[in-house]
UniProtKB/TrEMBL annotation:
GO cellular component, one term: nucleus
Name of this protein: ELF4-like 4
Major subcellular site: nucleus
Family under the similarity heading: Belongs to the EARLY FLOWERING 4 family.
Residues covered by the Protein EARLY FLOWERING domain: 24-105
Length: 124
């Protein structure tokens, strides 16, 4: 995924709309997906650095470094939650865009109750 900014480039101009109700994916939707995937990749890159630092601190067995790992682990867990939330939002956005394209409406409007019904709830 790194450096792959053209992942959805064929979708915004009608190059990837086949099988989705015949409509093309709106370029705004594609931009939203790209933005979300960039956010996810940035968080995952940060997580890799956090994990490396946590491992180094653990191997050092120095009390200060082990104490620091508590905060680093919390940060890592928060980042993982953010990635899960971003993927959940992406899933909902994708479902909305597919619903809209199958109805001949590319506005991405939600159901009348405003929910897609696809996002699962997880305990806090």
């Amino acid at each position: 995924m790194e450096g792959d900014s053209g992942t959805f480039s064929g979708l915004g101009n009608g190059g990837g709309g086949g099988g989705c109700g015949g409509g093309q994916i709106d370029s705004k939707v594609v931009q939203t997906f790209q933005k979300s995937f960039v956010q996810v990749q940035n968080i995952l890159d940060q997580n890799r650095l956090l994990i490396n630092e946590i491992n180094q601190n653990h191997e050092s067995k120095m009390p200060h470094n082990l104490t620091r790992n508590v905060g680093l682990t919390r940060e890592l867990n928060n980042n993982i939650r953010r990635v899960v939330d971003l993927y959940g939002d992406l899933s909902s956005s994708f479902a909305k865009s597919m619903d809209a394209s199958s109805e001949g409406d590319s506005s991405g409007a939600a159901k009348s109750d405003g929910k897609t019904g696809l996002k699962r709830n997880r305990p806090a």
